[in-house]
Amino acid sequence: EARAALGDLIEAASRVVAFTGAGISTECGVPDFRSKDSPWMRFKPIDFDLFMSDVLMREEGWRRKFALDDIYAMAQPGRGHYALANLVASGKARAIITQNIDNLHQTSGVPEERIIELHGNGSYATCLACGLRHELADIRRDFEATGAAPACVECGGAVKSATISFGQAMPENAMRRAHAASIDCDLFLAIGSSLVVYPAASFPSLARLHKARLVIVNGEPTPLDSEADLVLRGDIGDILEPFAA
Ligand code: OAD
Ligand code: ZN
Questions:
Q1: What ipTM score was computed for the predicted complex, to two decimals?
Q2: If you measure from the C-alpha of residue 219 to the centroid of ligand 1, how many angstroms do you get, rounded to a whole number?
Q3: Is 140 helix (H, G, I), strand (E, B) or coil?
Q4: Peptide bond connecting 199 to the previous residue in cis, omega within 30 degrees of 0
Protein backbone atom coordinates (compact mmCIF):
# COMPACT_ATOMS: atom_id res chain seq x y z
CA GLU A 1 0.00 0.00 0.00
CA ALA A 2 3.08 2.22 0.35
CA ARG A 3 3.49 1.75 -3.39
CA ALA A 4 -0.10 2.89 -3.94
CA ALA A 5 0.72 5.95 -1.87
CA LEU A 6 3.56 6.72 -4.27
CA GLY A 7 1.15 6.38 -7.19
CA ASP A 8 -1.24 8.78 -5.51
CA LEU A 9 1.48 11.35 -4.86
CA ILE A 10 2.65 11.16 -8.47
CA GLU A 11 -0.94 11.41 -9.69
CA ALA A 12 -1.55 14.50 -7.60
CA ALA A 13 1.71 16.20 -8.57
CA SER A 14 2.27 18.31 -11.63
CA ARG A 15 5.98 19.11 -11.39
CA VAL A 16 7.99 16.06 -10.34
CA VAL A 17 11.75 16.11 -9.92
CA ALA A 18 13.66 12.86 -9.54
CA PHE A 19 17.01 12.73 -7.80
CA THR A 20 19.00 9.57 -8.36
CA GLY A 21 22.00 7.82 -6.86
CA ALA A 22 23.94 4.68 -7.56
CA GLY A 23 21.18 2.42 -6.20
CA ILE A 24 19.09 2.88 -9.34
CA SER A 25 21.86 1.29 -11.42
CA THR A 26 22.85 -1.72 -9.32
CA GLU A 27 20.34 -3.92 -11.14
CA CYS A 28 22.18 -2.92 -14.33
CA GLY A 29 25.39 -4.40 -12.96
CA VAL A 30 26.92 -1.05 -12.02
CA PRO A 31 28.17 -1.23 -8.42
CA ASP A 32 27.17 1.44 -5.93
CA PHE A 33 29.63 3.10 -3.58
CA ARG A 34 28.73 2.29 0.00
CA SER A 35 27.37 -1.26 -0.14
CA LYS A 36 29.52 -3.98 1.40
CA ASP A 37 31.04 -5.48 -1.73
CA SER A 38 31.52 -2.25 -3.63
CA PRO A 39 34.84 -2.06 -5.50
CA TRP A 40 34.97 1.55 -4.29
CA MET A 41 35.43 0.30 -0.73
CA ARG A 42 38.73 -1.30 -1.76
CA PHE A 43 40.51 1.96 -2.55
CA LYS A 44 40.74 5.34 -0.98
CA PRO A 45 39.37 7.68 -3.67
CA ILE A 46 41.98 9.78 -5.48
CA ASP A 47 40.99 13.35 -4.79
CA PHE A 48 41.36 16.14 -7.29
CA ASP A 49 44.54 17.69 -5.87
CA LEU A 50 46.29 14.34 -5.82
CA PHE A 51 45.22 13.62 -9.41
CA MET A 52 46.66 16.97 -10.48
CA SER A 53 49.86 16.93 -8.46
CA ASP A 54 51.02 13.34 -8.54
CA VAL A 55 51.62 11.73 -11.92
CA LEU A 56 51.78 8.21 -10.46
CA MET A 57 48.37 8.68 -8.83
CA ARG A 58 47.04 10.07 -12.08
CA GLU A 59 48.17 6.91 -13.87
CA GLU A 60 46.65 4.81 -11.09
CA GLY A 61 43.38 6.73 -11.53
CA TRP A 62 43.30 5.87 -15.21
CA ARG A 63 44.08 2.20 -14.52
CA ARG A 64 41.14 2.01 -12.11
CA LYS A 65 38.90 3.85 -14.52
CA PHE A 66 39.63 1.50 -17.42
CA ALA A 67 39.15 -1.54 -15.17
CA LEU A 68 35.62 -0.32 -14.34
CA ASP A 69 34.82 0.90 -17.84
CA ASP A 70 34.14 -2.56 -19.15
CA ILE A 71 31.25 -2.75 -16.65
CA TYR A 72 29.91 0.67 -17.58
CA ALA A 73 30.14 -0.04 -21.29
CA MET A 74 28.00 -3.18 -20.93
CA ALA A 75 25.33 -1.65 -18.70
CA GLN A 76 21.79 -1.15 -19.97
CA PRO A 77 19.12 0.95 -18.23
CA GLY A 78 17.03 -0.78 -15.57
CA ARG A 79 13.39 -0.64 -14.50
CA GLY A 80 13.95 2.50 -12.43
CA HIS A 81 15.49 4.33 -15.37
CA TYR A 82 12.60 3.38 -17.63
CA ALA A 83 10.02 4.44 -15.05
CA LEU A 84 11.64 7.86 -14.80
CA ALA A 85 11.96 8.11 -18.59
CA ASN A 86 8.22 7.46 -18.77
CA LEU A 87 7.46 10.18 -16.20
CA VAL A 88 9.54 12.62 -18.22
CA ALA A 89 7.96 11.60 -21.53
CA SER A 90 4.46 12.08 -20.12
CA GLY A 91 5.37 15.59 -19.00
CA LYS A 92 4.91 14.71 -15.32
CA ALA A 93 8.59 14.95 -14.46
CA ARG A 94 10.51 18.10 -15.28
CA ALA A 95 14.02 17.02 -14.48
CA ILE A 96 16.21 14.19 -13.33
CA ILE A 97 18.99 15.34 -11.06
CA THR A 98 21.57 12.57 -10.88
CA GLN A 99 24.74 11.89 -8.96
CA ASN A 100 25.43 9.03 -11.34
CA ILE A 101 28.06 9.14 -14.03
CA ASP A 102 26.90 6.03 -15.87
CA ASN A 103 24.98 7.77 -18.67
CA LEU A 104 22.00 5.42 -18.16
CA HIS A 105 19.35 8.15 -17.93
CA GLN A 106 20.45 9.23 -21.39
CA THR A 107 20.40 5.64 -22.69
CA SER A 108 16.88 5.16 -21.32
CA GLY A 109 15.68 7.88 -23.67
CA VAL A 110 15.49 10.95 -21.45
CA PRO A 111 16.35 14.09 -23.45
CA GLU A 112 19.68 15.65 -22.46
CA GLU A 113 17.99 18.93 -21.43
CA ARG A 114 16.02 17.09 -18.72
CA ILE A 115 19.11 15.50 -17.14
CA ILE A 116 21.18 17.36 -14.58
CA GLU A 117 24.49 15.64 -13.84
CA LEU A 118 25.91 16.81 -10.52
CA HIS A 119 28.98 14.57 -10.61
CA GLY A 120 29.66 14.66 -14.32
CA ASN A 121 29.71 11.84 -16.85
CA GLY A 122 32.16 8.96 -17.05
CA SER A 123 31.60 8.10 -20.69
CA TYR A 124 34.10 10.64 -22.00
CA ALA A 125 37.02 12.75 -20.83
CA THR A 126 37.88 16.44 -21.03
CA CYS A 127 41.00 18.57 -20.99
CA LEU A 128 41.09 20.45 -17.68
CA ALA A 129 42.94 23.35 -19.34
CA CYS A 130 40.96 23.99 -22.53
CA GLY A 131 37.86 21.83 -22.11
CA LEU A 132 38.32 19.81 -25.28
CA ARG A 133 36.41 16.53 -25.25
CA HIS A 134 38.47 13.36 -25.64
CA GLU A 135 37.05 9.90 -26.37
CA LEU A 136 37.92 7.16 -23.89
CA ALA A 137 38.71 4.63 -26.60
CA ASP A 138 41.48 6.87 -27.95
CA ILE A 139 42.87 7.58 -24.49
CA ARG A 140 42.81 3.92 -23.55
CA ARG A 141 44.64 2.85 -26.68
CA ASP A 142 47.43 5.35 -25.99
CA PHE A 143 47.53 4.53 -22.28
CA GLU A 144 47.83 0.83 -22.93
CA ALA A 145 50.62 1.49 -25.42
CA THR A 146 52.65 3.98 -23.36
CA GLY A 147 51.49 3.62 -19.73
CA ALA A 148 51.48 7.42 -19.50
CA ALA A 149 48.50 9.47 -18.31
CA PRO A 150 46.92 11.25 -21.29
CA ALA A 151 47.60 14.85 -22.25
CA CYS A 152 45.37 17.07 -24.37
CA VAL A 153 45.89 16.69 -28.12
CA GLU A 154 45.35 20.45 -28.55
CA CYS A 155 47.09 22.12 -25.63
CA GLY A 156 48.99 19.43 -23.73
CA GLY A 157 46.89 20.01 -20.58
CA ALA A 158 45.88 17.25 -18.19
CA VAL A 159 42.98 15.13 -19.42
CA LYS A 160 40.56 13.72 -16.87
CA SER A 161 37.39 11.67 -16.98
CA ALA A 162 34.47 14.14 -17.17
CA THR A 163 33.46 13.19 -13.64
CA ILE A 164 33.75 15.24 -10.46
CA SER A 165 36.35 14.02 -7.99
CA PHE A 166 36.34 14.82 -4.29
CA GLY A 167 38.00 18.21 -3.90
CA GLN A 168 37.00 19.31 -7.40
CA ALA A 169 34.62 22.23 -7.91
CA MET A 170 31.01 21.28 -8.54
CA PRO A 171 29.80 22.02 -12.08
CA GLU A 172 28.23 25.48 -11.84
CA ASN A 173 25.60 25.09 -14.49
CA ALA A 174 24.36 21.77 -13.14
CA MET A 175 24.22 23.19 -9.62
CA ARG A 176 22.20 26.18 -10.81
CA ARG A 177 19.77 23.98 -12.74
CA ALA A 178 19.40 21.54 -9.83
CA HIS A 179 18.66 24.42 -7.48
CA ALA A 180 16.04 25.87 -9.83
CA ALA A 181 14.37 22.48 -10.37
CA SER A 182 14.33 21.71 -6.64
CA ILE A 183 12.68 24.95 -5.55
CA ASP A 184 10.08 24.74 -8.31
CA CYS A 185 8.79 21.16 -7.95
CA ASP A 186 5.80 19.87 -6.04
CA LEU A 187 7.09 16.32 -5.66
CA PHE A 188 10.73 15.34 -5.16
CA LEU A 189 11.66 11.67 -5.50
CA ALA A 190 15.04 10.72 -4.02
CA ILE A 191 15.89 7.30 -5.41
CA GLY A 192 18.81 5.00 -4.65
CA SER A 193 21.07 7.37 -2.79
CA SER A 194 22.56 7.09 0.68
CA LEU A 195 22.08 10.91 0.84
CA VAL A 196 25.34 11.49 2.65
CA VAL A 197 27.40 13.27 0.00
CA TYR A 198 27.06 17.06 -0.04
CA PRO A 199 26.25 19.38 -1.70
CA ALA A 200 24.21 16.88 -3.76
CA ALA A 201 22.26 15.68 -0.73
CA SER A 202 21.11 19.23 0.01
CA PHE A 203 18.55 19.20 -2.80
CA PRO A 204 15.93 16.93 -1.14
CA SER A 205 15.84 19.25 1.88
CA LEU A 206 15.78 22.32 -0.35
CA ALA A 207 12.74 20.99 -2.21
CA ARG A 208 11.06 20.18 1.12
CA LEU A 209 11.75 23.70 2.34
CA HIS A 210 9.97 24.98 -0.75
CA LYS A 211 6.87 22.93 0.05
CA ALA A 212 7.43 19.95 -2.22
CA ARG A 213 6.42 16.54 -0.99
CA LEU A 214 9.50 14.38 -0.44
CA VAL A 215 9.61 10.65 -1.19
CA ILE A 216 12.69 8.56 -0.48
CA VAL A 217 13.05 5.21 -2.22
CA ASN A 218 16.03 3.26 -0.96
CA GLY A 219 16.97 -0.19 0.31
CA GLU A 220 18.35 1.12 3.57
CA PRO A 221 17.70 4.07 5.87
CA THR A 222 19.06 7.51 5.01
CA PRO A 223 19.74 10.52 7.23
CA LEU A 224 16.86 12.37 5.52
CA ASP A 225 14.15 9.75 6.15
CA SER A 226 12.66 11.79 8.99
CA GLU A 227 12.07 14.72 6.61
CA ALA A 228 10.24 12.60 4.05
CA ASP A 229 6.48 12.42 3.54
CA LEU A 230 6.90 8.84 2.38
CA VAL A 231 9.78 6.38 2.69
CA LEU A 232 9.72 3.28 0.50
CA ARG A 233 12.23 0.70 1.61
CA GLY A 234 12.77 -2.07 -0.89
CA ASP A 235 14.16 -2.87 -4.28
CA ILE A 236 14.06 0.14 -6.58
CA GLY A 237 13.31 -1.85 -9.71
CA ASP A 238 10.40 -3.62 -8.03
CA ILE A 239 9.01 -0.39 -6.61
CA LEU A 240 9.27 1.67 -9.79
CA GLU A 241 8.42 -1.00 -12.35
CA PRO A 242 4.65 -0.19 -12.29
CA PHE A 243 5.47 3.36 -13.44
CA ALA A 244 7.42 2.21 -16.47
CA ALA A 245 4.41 1.82 -18.73
P1 OAD B 1 25.70 5.08 -2.34
O2 OAD B 1 26.42 3.81 -2.69
O3 OAD B 1 26.24 5.90 -1.25
O4 OAD B 1 24.19 4.75 -1.98
C5 OAD B 1 23.43 3.91 -2.79
C6 OAD B 1 22.22 3.49 -1.99
O7 OAD B 1 21.39 2.69 -2.82
C8 OAD B 1 22.59 2.63 -0.77
O9 OAD B 1 21.92 3.15 0.37
C10 OAD B 1 22.07 1.23 -1.14
O11 OAD B 1 21.56 0.53 -0.02
C12 OAD B 1 20.95 1.56 -2.09
N13 OAD B 1 20.67 0.51 -3.11
C14 OAD B 1 21.54 -0.13 -3.91
N15 OAD B 1 20.89 -0.94 -4.76
C16 OAD B 1 19.56 -0.84 -4.47
C17 OAD B 1 18.37 -1.44 -5.00
N18 OAD B 1 18.40 -2.31 -6.01
N19 OAD B 1 17.17 -1.09 -4.44
C20 OAD B 1 17.14 -0.20 -3.40
N21 OAD B 1 18.22 0.40 -2.88
C22 OAD B 1 19.42 0.09 -3.41
O23 OAD B 1 25.57 5.91 -3.72
P24 OAD B 1 25.23 7.46 -3.90
O25 OAD B 1 24.31 7.96 -2.84
O26 OAD B 1 24.84 7.64 -5.30
O27 OAD B 1 30.36 10.76 -5.73
O28 OAD B 1 26.66 8.10 -3.67
C29 OAD B 1 26.80 9.48 -3.72
C30 OAD B 1 28.16 9.86 -4.24
O31 OAD B 1 29.18 9.24 -3.46
C32 OAD B 1 28.47 9.37 -5.63
O33 OAD B 1 27.90 10.18 -6.63
C34 OAD B 1 29.96 9.40 -5.67
C35 OAD B 1 30.24 8.78 -4.33
O36 OAD B 1 31.44 9.09 -3.78
C37 OAD B 1 31.52 11.12 -6.31
O38 OAD B 1 32.24 10.30 -6.84
C39 OAD B 1 31.83 12.58 -6.26
ZN1 ZN C 1 43.47 21.17 -23.87
A1: 0.98
A2: 10
A3: helix
A4: yes
